[in-house]
Specification:
The complex is a heterodimer of chains A (about 260) and B (about 325).
Chain A (H helix, E strand, L loop, with lengths): L21 H13 L1 H19 L14 H30 L2 H5 L6 H29 L6 H14 L1 H13 L5 H15 L11 H7 L3 H14 L5 H26 L3
Chain B lengths: L3 H4 L7 E10 L2 E11 L4 E5 L6 H8 L7 E6 L4 H6 L3 E4 L11 H9 L8 H7 L15 H13 L5 E5 L7 H16 L3 E6 L2 H7 L2 E6 L2 E6 L1 H7 L3 E6 L5 H5 L4 E7 L2 E6 L2 H11 L3 E7 L2 H9 L13
Parallel strand pairs in B: 3-7, 3-8, 5-6, 6-7
Antiparallel strand pairs in B: 1-2, 1-4, 8-9, 10-12, 10-13, 11-12
Helix pairs in contact in B: 9-12
The chains are: A mainly alpha (about 260), B alpha/beta (about 325).
Chain lengths: ~260, ~325
């Protein structure tokens, strides 16, 4: 037995910022960009929807506001892409819990909060890509808006997608599952319908319109389109976004605490 | 066992478990386990499935909280020991991202520590530098295990814990893996590995801790543990045997005579065989050995009557 232990320093190996770092973030973003399936749903599909359902409305206006229908559809689909991106990004936690990765992380000094923050930032980077790609496709498709409308609508779609990062984390901490996006996909499509992303809410039955105002996509959709429609940036839409973000965020935080405290 | 603790009593032990107990509902997985491991020891944690090895390791790593008792790793709590890079572990399964390359996996893990060994160095030491660009999903079980080992090398831990590290590996993979570990142990690292492969415990550990039903049932060097139930049995047909004479042969600790058959339990079967064949009319001679496996079975699968009398301590 060679018991002559070398004199070793007992230095702390804790990283700064709880382990939040650019190497980790860069690799996380690269991982998402490698996932062809995710890319299809957040970049290709909204663009294809725009070409199929947006372009045929070229030259038409939304009845009551007089806003360009094709621009309206483009912004709505940008919101859809962004929300899918952040849900997938947050929901990745479920996959990583199922694969034992979150357990492995507990063998490192990485703080769980830094892990969650990295997930949120990478999800938001991806949703930014989604918005930018949709807007580029829109611009090539002939959407014309004042510069500040492009900017504000883009920011609205992008920042609003934070709600769905919280939703993704909430679902991710609810159950460890490899196939989380397979059941989230249809749910997101339904939420998008209630949020008026696929068709203007006005064409839905009155009861559905009332219900829709309480679903989480409604607020984000209205706010993102408000620079174009000059309406929708209302107390109820802002409250909708804030309440859903807070509710899902707190729910995710509680589940996360249960998960990290699990023994 | 060697009273290492008496020689080095002033040193902080690498691992100190006191009265460690873990209950899952009504099931007691670990039952008042006491264990002290000195720095530099290579210890095998040997026991059948369900003996409580993994639960004990989980508590050592802070992945599970003890119901009772305490864990100290170099005098720290498990979480503190991890933060200080004093303990690292190679888990049995899982814990790897499938969609990154081997090198990316190591880079990412390195980024979680304030300071680590260089990525290229740990890849080299774990013997996976040649597959650095391979996707983790495409690596064999043995390669994934060496990747886990590379990750564990990053903080340059004083104590490396391996939970059944060679499960599912082929013979060659197992040999390669152990040669990497052995090279590492020679540098003075403390190693604790759980296994249910007896030959691994025998070949690679300085000390074997046998565990059954969440308790230590034997603790000593491989040869000490073997000796618990070791020795050989010599059996022969020998009419009118002189039992007293046989029992007095060197190395014989038990002699039985059953009719024309003699059964001698000895630690030197050569002497007994030579005597029987040359000095007596014995015939049909048979020598059977009890190996570590028998010791293992006797100590771990026996019912509750095997208690502390079976231990070396």
């Amino acid at each position: 037995m060679t018991a002559v232990a070398l004199p070793r320093s007992d230095n702390d190996r804790r990283p700064p910022l709880g382990g939040f770092n650019l190497t980790f973030l860069g690799l996380e973003i690269r991982r998402v960009l490698r996932n062809r399936r995710t890319l299809f749903f957040i970049l290709i599909m909204p663009a294809v929807f725009f070409l199929l359902f947006g372009l045929p409305n070229k030259g038409q206006n939304i009845s009551d506001t007089g806003a360009s229908a094709v621009a309206y559809i483009m912004i709505s689909l940008a919101v859809y892409g962004a929300m899918t991106a952040t849900t997938a990004g947050g929901g990745a936690v479920a996959v990583e819990r199922a694969q034992g990765w979150s357990r492995q992380l507990r063998l490192t000094p990485l703080r769980p909060a830094a892990y969650v923050a990295t997930k949120v930032v990478s999800a938001m980077s991806l949703s930014l890509c989604s918005v930018v790609v949709e807007f580029i496709v829109g611009a090539f498709g002939g959407v014309r808006m004042p510069a500040h409308v492009w900017l504000l609508a883009g920011l609205g779609a992008w920042i609003g997608s934070l709600v769905f990062a919280a939703l993704g984390l909430f679902v991710g901490y609810l159950a460890p599952a490899e196939n989380v996006m397979q059941f989230m996909g249809p749910i997101l499509a339904l939420l998008a319908l209630f949020g008026g992303l696929f068709v203007p809410l006005e064409v839905l039955p009155h009861v559905m319109q009332t219900i829709a105002k309480f679903t989480p996509v409604y607020g984000v959709g209205s706010i993102a389109r408000s620079p174009l429609t000059h309406s929708g940036f209302t107390v109820s839409s802002v409250a909708n976004v804030l309440i859903w973000t807070a509710g899902l965020g707190i729910g995710a935080a509680l589940l996360y605490r249960r998960d990290t405290a699990r023994v | 066992m060697l009273a290492a603790s008496e020689i080095t009593g002033t040193r902080t032990p690498a691992v100190l478990l006191r009265g460690l107990t873990k209950k899952f509902g009504t099931v007691t997985a670990v039952n008042g386990l006491d264990l002290r491991i000195e720095p530099g020891e290579v210890v095998a944690f040997l026991g059948p499935n369900g003996a409580g090895k993994t639960t004990t390791i989980d508590m050592m790593l802070g992945l599970a909280r003890p119901t009772e008792g305490s864990v100290q790793v170099y005098g720290h709590t498990p979480a503190e020991a991890i933060a200080r890079g004093r303990i690292a572990a190679v888990m049995q399964t899982g814990g790897l991202l499938k969609d990154v390359s081997v090198a990316e996996m190591v880079q990412m893990t390195a980024s979680f520590f304030g300071r680590t060994r260089p990525v290229a160095e740990v890849l080299e030491r774990a013997g996976i530098a040649d597959i650095a660009d391979r996707r983790v999903a495409k690596c064999s079980g043995g390669q994934q295990q060496r990747l886990r080992f590379a990750l564990a090398l990053l903080p340059d831990p004083d104590l490396m814990v391996l939970d059944e590290p060679t499960t599912g590996m082929d013979v060659e993979g197992r040999r390669d893996f152990w040669s990497a570990i052995r090279a590492d142990a020679q540098a003075g690292r403390t190693i604790l590995f759980a296994t249910h492969y007896l030959e691994e415990a025998d070949a690679y550990a300085d000390r074997i801790v046998l565990i059954r039903k969440g308790q230590v049932v034997a603790d000593g060097t491989a040869s000490e543990v073997k000796a618990l139930a070791a020795g050989r049995q010599v059996r022969a047909t020998l009419p009118d045997a002189d039992q007293v004479r046989l029992a007095a042969l060197p190395g014989v600790d038990r002699a039985e005579v059953r009719g024309d058959t003699v059964l001698l339990h000895t630690n030197d079967s050569d002497v007994v065989a030579r005597y029987l064949l040359t000095q007596t009319p014995a015939r049909d001679l048979e020598i059977t050995s009890r190996n570590l496996e028998d010791a293992f079975l006797a100590l771990t699968s026996g019912e509750d009557q095997i208690t502390q009398e079976g231990t070396v301590r």
